[in-house]
C-alpha cells in the first residue's frame, strides 16, 4: 500500500471515529434530554391507573360510580380470548415477538408519513400506545415519538408481555367516557366484559384507534365497517376460520340504545360522597377504586322516586299550578332558582328506613337532582304540624295517662307570655266536647293537644322528642302542640322508628362498609341502639296511631289499597304550606313531606292525608310486597279490654261504638259505661273517608 493511501485510510478512520463519537454523544445527549421528562424506573414499577369507586345497594347491586376516568380493573384471565385476539390482530400482531417497537411496522409508517408529508400513520405497538396513554400526550411530533419509543423499551424491560397486555386493556380509551374494556363493555353493551359475544369483542377492538369516528352510536355504518375490518384481520392472523368470519360479519352491532349509566339515587349518593370525601379525601373517591356497601334497596328507591313524581304531577294538575315541573323544564332559563338551590315547582321528599337497624332503605331529596341538589330529606327544616303530636301523647302515656282518658275539646285561651292570649283552633273549626286521648290524636284535634301540653309542660315533651331523635331546636311554648318548631324529614321519620322498634332508638345509618380496591375492609358500620321508651308505652302509642289509619285522618290509606296493620300520623301546617305523613309497619317506617321550597300554599285542602299519604301508600306497598302482613308484637305487661269509645269505660252491650283498647297491666278501667245502659246495640255506620280528614274544613276536603 502506498504512503498516500495509508494517509487517506488513517484520515477516513479518524473521521469515522469522530462521527461515531459524535453520534454516540448526540445519542447520549438526546437520551439524557429525553430522560428529563420521562418517568423513573421506580415509577414504571408502580403503574396504577385511576380506578373508579363502586357503590352497591344492600343486595349487592351496583347502583352508583364515582370517577374521573370511568375505569374498572379486570385481570387478563377474565378478558375473553376473542377480545385479546381481536386487539392483537388489528393493533399489534407481532406483540409477543417484538421488544417494544416493531421495526417493520415502524418503517411502513415512516414511508407513509413521508409520502403524505405529515404524520399520517402511527405504527405504534401496544406497548407504545400504553406508554403514550400513561405518560405522554397525543400530539403527533417527532420528539413525542422518540420519547414513546424509549418508554416502550423501558416498559418491556420492566414487565412481562401478559402484564403489559393487561395494563393496556385496563388503560386504553374506548370512547364515550369509557377507559378500559370493562367500562367499554358496560357503556356500549350494558354488560360485563366476560359476557361479550365474539362480534362485540371485534367491535370494541376497533375503537381505540379512533373512538370518536368509529363510535357505533355516532356513525353505525363506519363502526360496522371497522368491526368487519377487525374480523378480516383476525381471519388473516388465523385466529378464526372463514365460517366464523362470515357469521360474525353478518351480526348486528348489538349496541344498547342508551348508554349504561350507574348513577342512581342521586340525593342518597351525594350523602355518601360527602361522607367519603370528609373521611378519605376526593382522590380516594374518584381514583382509589373503593367499594362502598350501602343500606339502600334500589328497588324500593325506584318505587319511591316514581311515586313522588307521579303523585306530585297529579297534584300540580289538580291544583292547576301554572309553574309545574314539566312547564318549567320546557322553558329556557330558570338559572336564578337553581343558583339558590331552589325550584319554583312543587317539591317533596321521602325517607324509608328499617327501625330495628336504623338502615336507610330509600331516600329521595327532591324531584330532580339536576335542577336542585338541595336535599329536602335532610336539609329542609319545616314545621311538622300535627305530625309532632305523637311526642306530646307519648309523654302523657309514659306519665300515667291512658288512651281512654277524657279531655275536653272546648274553647280555651293561654297566656302567650307577651301580654297577649293565644286561643288554639281546630282545623275544621269545630269543638267536640269530651273526647278520649285516642280519638283526639286519631282525628288530629288541636285544642286537646294544647291542653295536654300545658298539663305536661313543654320541657317534658321536648325532652321526649329529643331522646327519640329530634335534634332540631324546639321552641318551649304551647304552639309546639301545633308543630310550629321546624324539623327535617329524616329526624322525624327516625324518631317514629322508636314506636315501631318497641321503644328502642337506633341511629340512622346509610353505609354498611367501605373496602379498598384490594378488598381490605377500611370500616364497618356499628348499630347504636338505646331504649328510650318502655315497650308498653311504645305499643300503646302504636295502638293509638293505628286508629289514625283505621278511622282517623289517614283512613283513606285503606281506600288507596294499603290493608296491612300500620300506624302513623298526618301533619298539615297553616294555609296548607306543608303536608306530612309518617307511618310504619313492623320492620319499616316511612316519612313523606310535600311543599314548595319557597313557603307558599300547596293548594286548597292539601292536608297530609291529601298530599303526602298517597305517596306513602305507594312506597309502603313496594316495601312490603311479597311479605305477609304482620301485627305489631305485644309485650308482656299489656292487657286489652273492650271499652266504650265515648266514655272510655268498659263497654256495655248498648254502647254504640266500642273498640279493643290496650292498657298497662293494673291501669285498665274497672267500671262499666254508665251512659249507655240499654241492651240493644245501635247499628254502626261505615265511615266516609271524606269526613275523616279533619285537618281541613268540610268545604275544602278532597274526595278520593
Taking pLDDT < 50 over at least 5 consecutive residues as the criterion, the unreliable ranges are 334-339
Number of helices: 25
Q: Which fold name fills CATH's third level, the topology of one domain?
A: Penicillin binding protein transpeptidase fold
| Widest β-sheet, arrangement of strands | 2-1-3-11-12
CA-based gyration radius: 36 Å
Query: Which structural category fits the helices and strands?
Result: alpha+beta
Shape: elongated
Number of distinct beta strands:
18
In words, what does this structure look like?
The protein is α+β, with helices and mostly antiparallel strands and 704 residues long. Among the domains are: 75-249, Penicillin binding protein transpeptidase fold, CATH 1.10.3810; 636-704, no CATH class. 41% of the residues lie in helices and 12% in strands. The strands form six sheets. Strands 2-1-3-11-12 form a five-stranded mixed sheet. A hairpin with a 5-residue loop joins strand 7 and strand 8 (421-422). Helix 3 crosses helix 10 (220-236) and helix 17 crosses helix 20 (458-468). Mean pLDDT is 87; it is low at 334-339. Its main location: membrane.
What is the secondary structure topology, with strand pairs?
Blueprint lengths: L2 H34 L4 H4 L8 E4 L5 E5 L14 H11 L11 H14 L9 H10 L6 H17 L2 H11 L9 H9 L8 H8 L14 H17 L5 H8 L16 H15 L1 H6 L3 E4 L3 H21 L6 H6 L4 H5 L7 E7 L6 E5 L24 H10 L7 E4 L4 E2 L5 E2 L10 E4 H6 L3 H11 L1 H11 L20 H12 L3 E3 L4 E5 L5 E4 L4 E3 L3 H17 L4 H4 L7 E6 L5 E8 L2 E8 L12 H16 L14 E7 L13 E7 L24 H4 L12
Parallel strand pairs: 1-3
Antiparallel strand pairs: 1-2, 3-11, 4-5, 4-16, 6-9, 7-8, 10-13, 11-12, 14-15, 15-16, 17-18
Helix pairs in contact: 3-9, 3-10, 5-6, 5-7, 9-10, 10-11, 14-24, 17-19, 17-20, 17-22
Amino acid at each position: 500500500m502506498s504512503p498516500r493511501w495509508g494517509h487517506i485510510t488513517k484520515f477516513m478512520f479518524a473521521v469515522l471515529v469522530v462521527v461515531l463519537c459524535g453520534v454516540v454523544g448526540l445519542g447520549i445527549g438526546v437520551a439524557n434530554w429525553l430522560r428529563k421528562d420521562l418517568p423513573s424506573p421506580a415509577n414504571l414499577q408502580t403503574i396504577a391507573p385511576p380506578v373508579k369507586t363502586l357503590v352497591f345497594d344492600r343486595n349487592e347491586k351496583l347502583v352508583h360510580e364515582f370517577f374521573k376516568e370511568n375505569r374498572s380493573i379486570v385481570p387478563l384471565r377474565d378478558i375473553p380470548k376473542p377480545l385479546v385476539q381481536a386487539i392483537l390482530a388489528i393493533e399489534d400482531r407481532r406483540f409477543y415477538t417484538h421488544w417494544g417497537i416493531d421495526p417493520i411496522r415502524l418503517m411502513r409508517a415512516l414511508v407513509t408519513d413521508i409520502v403524505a408529508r405529515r404524520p399520517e400513520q402511527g405504527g405504534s405497538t401496544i406497548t407504545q400506545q400504553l406508554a403514550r396513554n400513561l405518560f405522554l400526550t397525543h400530539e403527533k411530533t417527532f420528539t413525542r415519538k422518540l420519547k414513546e419509543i424509549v418508554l416502550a423499551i423501558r416498559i418491556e424491560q420492566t414487565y412481562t408481555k401478559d402484564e403489559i397486555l393487561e395494563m393496556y386493556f385496563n388503560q386504553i380509551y374506548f370512547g364515550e367516557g369509557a377507559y378500559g374494556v370493562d367500562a367499554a363493555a358496560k357503556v356500549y353493551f350494558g354488560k360485563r366484559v366476560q359476557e361479550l359475544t365474539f362480534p362485540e369483542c371485534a367491535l370494541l377492538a376497533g375503537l381505540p384507534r379512533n373512538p370518536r369516528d368509529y363510535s357505533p352510536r355516532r356513525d353505525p355504518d363506519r363502526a360496522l365497517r371497522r368491526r368487519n375490518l377487525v374480523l378480516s384481520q383476525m381471519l388473516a392472523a388465523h385466529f378464526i376460520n372463514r365460517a366464523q368470519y362470515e357469521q360474525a360479519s353478518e351480526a348486528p352491532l348489538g349496541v344498547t340504545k342508551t348508554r349504561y349509566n350507574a348513577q342512581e339515587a342521586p340525593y342518597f349518593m351525594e350523602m355518601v360522597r360527602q361522607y367519603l370525601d370528609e373521611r378519605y379525601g376526593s382522590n380516594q373517591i374518584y381514583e382509589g377504586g373503593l367499594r362502598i356497601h350501602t343500606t339502600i334497596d334500589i328497588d324500593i328507591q325506584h318505587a319511591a322516586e316514581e311515586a313522588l313524581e307521579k303523585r306530585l304531577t297529579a297534584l300540580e294538575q289538580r291544583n292547576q299550578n301554572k309553574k309545574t315541573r314539566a312547564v318549567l323544564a320546557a322553558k329556557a332559563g330558570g338559572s336564578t332558582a337553581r343558583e339558590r338551590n331552589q325550584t319554583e315547582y312543587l317539591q317533596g321528599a321521602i325517607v324509608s328506613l328499617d327501625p330495628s337497624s336504623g338502615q336507610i332503605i330509600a331516600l329521595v331529596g327532591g324531584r330532580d337532582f339536576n335542577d336542585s341538589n338541595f336535599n329536602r330529606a335532610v336539609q329542609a327544616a319545616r314545621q311538622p304540624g300535627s305530625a309532632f303530636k305523637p311526642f306530646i301523647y307519648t309523654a302523657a302515656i309514659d306519665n300515667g295517662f291512658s288512651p281512654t282518658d277524657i279531655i275536653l275539646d272546648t274553647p280555651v285561651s293561654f297566656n302567650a307570655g307577651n301580654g297577649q292570649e293565644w286561643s288554639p283552633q281546630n282545623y275544621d273549626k269545630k269543638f267536640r266536647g269530651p273526647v278520649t286521648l285516642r280519638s283526639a290524636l286519631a282525628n288530629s284535634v288541636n285544642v286537646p293537644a294544647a291542653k295536654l301540653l300545658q298539663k305536661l309542660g313543654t320541657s317534658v315533651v321536648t325532652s321526649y322528642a329529643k331522646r327519640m331523635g329530634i335534634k332540631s331546636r324546639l321552641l318551649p311554648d304551647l304552639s309546639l302542640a301545633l308543630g310550629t318548631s321546624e324539623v327535617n324529614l329524616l329526624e322525624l321519620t327516625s324518631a317514629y322508628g322508636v314506636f315501631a322498634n318497641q321503644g328502642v332508638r337506633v341511629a340512622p345509618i346509610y353505609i354498611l362498609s367501605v373496602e379498598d380496591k384490594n378488598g381490605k375492609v377500611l370500616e364497618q358500620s356499628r348499630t347504636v341502639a338505646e331504649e328510650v321508651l318502655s315497650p308498653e308505652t311504645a305499643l300503646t302509642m302504636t295502638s293509638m296511631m293505628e286508629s289514625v289509619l283505621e278511622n282517623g285522618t289517614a283512613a283513606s290509606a285503606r281506600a288507596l289499597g294499603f290493608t296491612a296493620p300500620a300506624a302513623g300520623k298526618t301533619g298539615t301546617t297553616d294555609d296548607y304550606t306543608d303536608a306530612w305523613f309518617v307511618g310504619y309497619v313492623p320492620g319499616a317506617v316511612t316519612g313523606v313531606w310535600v311543599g314548595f321550597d319557597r313557603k307558599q300554599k300547596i293548594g286548597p285542602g292539601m292536608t297530609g292525608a291529601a298530599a303526602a299519604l298517597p305517596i306513602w301508600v305507594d312506597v309502603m306497598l313496594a316495601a312490603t310486597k311479597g311479605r305477609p302482613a304482620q301485627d305489631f308484637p305485644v309485650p308482656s305487661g299489656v292487657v286489652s279490654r273492650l271499652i266504650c269509645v265515648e266514655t272510655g269505660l268498659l263497654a256495655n252491650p248498648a254502647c254504640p261504638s266500642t273498640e279493643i283498647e290496650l292498657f298497662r297491666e293494673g291501669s285498665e278501667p274497672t267500671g262499666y259505661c254508665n251512659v249507655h245502659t240499654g241492651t240493644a246495640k245501635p247499628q254502626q255506620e261505615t265511615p266516609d273517608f271524606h269526613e275523616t280528614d279533619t285537618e281541613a274544613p268540610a268545604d275544602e276536603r278532597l274526595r278520593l
